[in-house]
Amino acid sequence: MVIYVDTLFLLNALVDYLLLLGAARLAGEPLRRLQFGAGAALGGLYAVALFLPGMGFLNHPLCRVAAGVLMVMAAYGGSRRLLRQGLIFLALTCAFGGGVVAIGLLGGQGLALGPQGVFYSKLDLNMVLLSAAFCYGILTVAFQRLGKHTALNGELVEAKLTLGKRTVKLTALVDTGNTLTDPVSGRPVMVAEGESLGPLFPGDRCPGPEDLREPAGALDRLSRGEWRGRFRLLPYRAVGVDRGLLLALRVDRLELNGVDQGGILVALSPTPVSDGGGYRALVGAVRGG
Question: Do the beta carbons of residue 110 and residue 123 sit within 8 Å?
């Protein structure tokens, strides 16, 4: 059998990208597509290297583990749930590989799992690209539907926050038990993990972990110049906390599942808002489309 390097690289990189993307969506992680692309490219290069002369040692289980760790680090580096992300990615990879083997046993002639544990196809490159695009579309629709109808006490929605020209997307839980409101406008306040909103800030205005834990001391430093009035302190009460303060940021616009909610106050939580990491923010009432 003749295996073409370009097809081998592209096919494995595309499969790895879809798996990395799917694992992030399942975990409610921010979709850092450039990082996913870097991780997928490493997977494609590893698949090609396995077939190069003198590189047979890369087939050793330890080398495979090392390659997988590098992919996960490249794709999810910086996440506090790196281990969890890696385990979800591993589970998806095993499920996908098992599905490909099953299809092959049933006589499928498209995607196949080779003896080196990499994917190859007898289809030409154009068909590979078309198939990958189709699979990506199906995967995106499936995860969007899951995101809209999966919840603990409400609904998981895609939230997009805009501040000036900067935006960030994350998964939010519509929580009717979230009674935190803006004392000025009376509108519900969104509670988001502080580290998830990093892309909204330039480097000198990005609140650090210490700023989130001690917001009173950080308010003056963060509210200078054009950022005056953006930050404020928001009092709250919670189980085990009689009187606490959260650093809050007023964003220009919040969109939930594409529906504009207008400007809103976002409280920056110094700790995760979800035990399992399935979402990164809590919102109250949602306007319909």
Answer: yes
Q: Rounded to the nearest 5°, which phi and psi values hold at 155?
A: -140, 145
DSSP readout, the chain?
Answer: ----HHHHHHHHHHHHHHHHHHHHHHHT----HHHHHHHHHHHHHHHHHTTSTT-GGGGSHHHHHHHHHHHHHHHHTT-TTHHHHHHHHHHHHHHHHHHHHHHHHTT--SEEE-TTS-EEESS-HHHHHHHHHHHHHHHHHHHHHHHHH--SSEEEEEEEEEETTEEEEEEEEEETT---B-TTT--B-EEEEGGGGGGGS-GGG---HHHHHSHHHHHHHHT-GGGTTTEEEEEEEETTEEEEEEEEEEESEEEETTEE--SEEEEEESS-S-SSSS-SEEE------
Query: What is the rounded CA–CA span in Å between residue 75 and residue 72?
Result: 5
Model pTM score: 0.50
For 168-183, write each residue's pLDDT tens digit: 999 888 876 667 787 7
Distance CA 2, CA 274 (A): 49
Q: Convert the pLDDT of each residue in 235-264 to its tens digit.
A: 877 644 556 788 888 999 999 888 898 898
Tokens of 138: 């199906």
Give the model confidence (pLDDT) of 43-57 as tens digits.
888 887 877 777 777
**Residue 285 φ then ψ, to 5°:** -65, 145
Query: Residue 180: CB partners within 8 Å, gap ≥ 6?
Result: 188, 189, 191, 234, 236, 267, 284
Hey, where are the domains in the chain? 5-146, 154-283
Residue type, 9: F
Provide mean pLDDT across the span 267-280: 79
Encoded tokens for 39: 């991780």
